[in-house]
Write a sequence for this structure.
């Protein structure tokens, strides 16, 4: 999955370079890092033609790409708002992906399980969303690209009323608002 | 909606006949430890008009209101011996003593030439053998338009309740709540309102935006609540009469957990930004707001004391959600723990405490408590003493007080996966009962007594 991600990122760099030909320097860098040949299977210079021909995975830079190859949610402990190592890995991938697609804007939603009261959970969700945002910003994501919202316990993704469902429902959800490829 | 406002013309307290000594003994104690409901007979009203059904309906609502308090044992009409009651004639007390009725309500329903209806009633103390005066009068007569008949019934029940218990009335009120439909993962939440007895349910918003935590103004036909309109969670003011919605304040971040001050002139709310929640007080006239708390922890769910001098709120500054009280002007208080501090913690028992609501009488705070996977509604003294748990279930949350401070309304999910429903409980912990709604329902709030 990591390889796919690097290829996709490389492809994106190539794309962005060809889009602004006025700067000579970066061209050399690109050739060092990512030979055009390697990127071939992915939709490199002409993504529109390549993508339908070889539907191996999600289109690079798409919502699906983000969801499948990066990960859109981090999960919190009961009443918690700290990011563990797994969460940090996911957010690092998010930050890298976002740096590859600088036109993408996101909103981070903070969610809670149903075992708390409504207003406290709204505050806790806001705290969770802010923790995620702060971490992304610490990794170089421009804060102006990141909005936050709290849904408290209003937006469960698992309908059950058991430990497993609650663990899924305590999350920070990074949602792409605009700027993704489609 | 305008129907509610239709000129309510209640000609109050027209004395009817009889001048008798007022030394009735019948009194219902609401706080008695060894509790026995008081037997009360409310026979069908005398009918002076064509619509006997309406007369029956009015009497039914009076009975249901009084029965719902748990304080009265409404007698079965089949047991009545005297069948020829008239409002103009003293009842045959021995006939009522035989069936051990202590209070007797005798009513008359009339249709007036102008199309209105009138209901007269007297309350008799069966063992004392005399009429119980209400506001100094030996009876009451209330007049209104026929479509407003339920309010006449509630006012009669309020009079009787007030006369027998000495407590302020609360039947002629409404409940605002959130009506919930759809699956848990795609819940539709609408603002809804109904009479306190569950009649006249209406939806005030369409469900396009999730709305939460409505609260009644104590002084106007207004609600403050939180809505996700425009994708941003913020506090709004909603006028019930006009249906007009208005954003309160222009804060960055989100605003939530609104509640009116007791005088209705201000709204307390929480503003959250950058992971920190603080409590603000906004004056509705000037729209100026002032931050009351200043702490990196979560501070939310503010509720003001009746005298406006202090607020109680939820904070996790001690590590878990607990209740705190602070002076509205920010000056230090002497805390229950002995020291002086800007904010004093009042909950020290095991468990998490949230959603505090100061009682209209000022001496108690109602709250939600979580402990060991169960949720409780309880009350505690503002000095942190005398905690009492009134209810328990899988999820009991969000208490609010009846305007007289006797009854607490809240919502309950009785078991995992069960939808929320509205419930009420007497301050004594007795008389837990469900309030019927057409859909699942949460976040109930009680109106003041209607004007």
């Amino acid at each position: 999955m990591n390889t796919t991600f690097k290829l996709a990122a490389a492809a994106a760099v190539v794309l962005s370079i060809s889009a602004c030909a006025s700067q000579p320097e970066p061209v050399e860098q690109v050739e060092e890092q990512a030979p055009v040949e390697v990127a071939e299977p992915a939709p490199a210079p002409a993504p529109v033609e390549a993508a339908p021909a070889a539907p191996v995975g999600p289109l690079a830079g798409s919502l699906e790409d983000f969801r499948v190859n990066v990960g859109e949610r981090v999960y919190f402990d009961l009443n918690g708002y700290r990011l563990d190592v797994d969460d940090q890995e996911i957010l690092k991938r998010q930050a890298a992906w976002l740096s590859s697609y600088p036109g993408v804007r996101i909103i981070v939603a903070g969610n809670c399980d149903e075992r708390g009261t409504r207003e406290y959970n709204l505050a806790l969700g806001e705290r969770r969303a802010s923790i995620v945002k702060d971490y992304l910003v610490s990794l170089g994501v421009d804060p102006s690209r990141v909005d936050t919202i709290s849904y408290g316990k209003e937006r469960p993704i698992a309908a059950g009323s058991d430990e497993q469902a609650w663990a899924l429902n305590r999350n920070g959800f990074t949602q792409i608002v605009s700027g993704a490829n489609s | 909606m305008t129907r509610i406002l239709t000129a309510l013309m209640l000609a109050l307290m027209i004395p009817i006949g009889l001048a008798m000594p007022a030394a009735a003994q019948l009194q219902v104690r609401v706080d008695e430890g060894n509790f026995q409901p008081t037997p009360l007979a409310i026979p069908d009203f005398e009918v002076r008009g064509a619509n006997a059904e309406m007369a029956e309906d009015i009497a039914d609502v009076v009975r249901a209101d009084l029965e719902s308090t748990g304080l009265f044992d409404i007698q079965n009409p089949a047991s009545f011996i005297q069948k020829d009651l008239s409002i103009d004639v003293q009842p045959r007390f021995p006939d009522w003593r035989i069936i051990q009725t202590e209070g007797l309500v005798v009513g008359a329903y009339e249709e007036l030439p102008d199309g209105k209806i009138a209901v007269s009633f007297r309350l008799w103390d069966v063992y004392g053998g005399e009429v119980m005066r209400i506001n100094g009068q030996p009876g009451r007569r209330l007049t209104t338009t026929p479509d407003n008949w339920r309010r006449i019934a509630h006012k009669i029940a309020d009079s009787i309740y007030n006369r027998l218990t000495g407590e302020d009335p609360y039947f002629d009120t409404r409940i605002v709540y959130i009506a919930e439909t759809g699956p848990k993962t795609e819940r539709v939440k609408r603002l809804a309102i109904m009479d306190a007895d569950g009649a006249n349910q209406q939806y005030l918003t369409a469900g396009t935006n999730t709305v939460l935590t409505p609260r009644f103004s104590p002084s106007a036909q207004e609600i403050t609540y939180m809505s996700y309109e425009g994708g941003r969670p913020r506090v709004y003011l909603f006028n019930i009469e006009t249906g007009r919605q208005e954003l309160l304040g222009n804060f960055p971040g989100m605003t939530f957990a609104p509640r009116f001050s007791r005088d209705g002139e201000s709204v307390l709310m929480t503003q959250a930004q950058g992971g920190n929640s603080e409590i603000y007080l906004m004056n509705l006239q000037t729209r100026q707001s002032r931050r009351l708390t200043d702490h990196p922890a979560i501070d939310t769910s503010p509720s003001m004391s009746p005298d406006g001098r202090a607020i109680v709120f939820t904070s996790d500054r001690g590590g878990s959600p607990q209740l705190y009280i602070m002076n509205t002007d920010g000056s230090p208080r002497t805390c229950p723990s002995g020291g002086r501090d800007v904010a004093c913690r009042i909950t020290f028992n095991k468990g998490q405490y949230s959603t505090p609501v100061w009682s209209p009488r000022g001496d108690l705070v109602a709250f939600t408590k979580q402990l060991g996977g169960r949720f409780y509604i309880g009350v505690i003294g503002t000095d942190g003493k005398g905690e009492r748990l009134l209810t328990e279930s899988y999820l009991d949350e969000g208490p609010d007080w009846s305007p007289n401070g006797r009854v607490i309304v809240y919502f309950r999910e009785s078991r995992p996966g069960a939808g929320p429903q509205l419930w009420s409980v007497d301050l004594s912990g007795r008389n837990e009962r469900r309030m019927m709604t057409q859909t699942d329902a949460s976040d109930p709030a009680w109106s003041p007594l209607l004007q």
Summary: Residues 52-68 of chain B form the longest helix (17 residues).
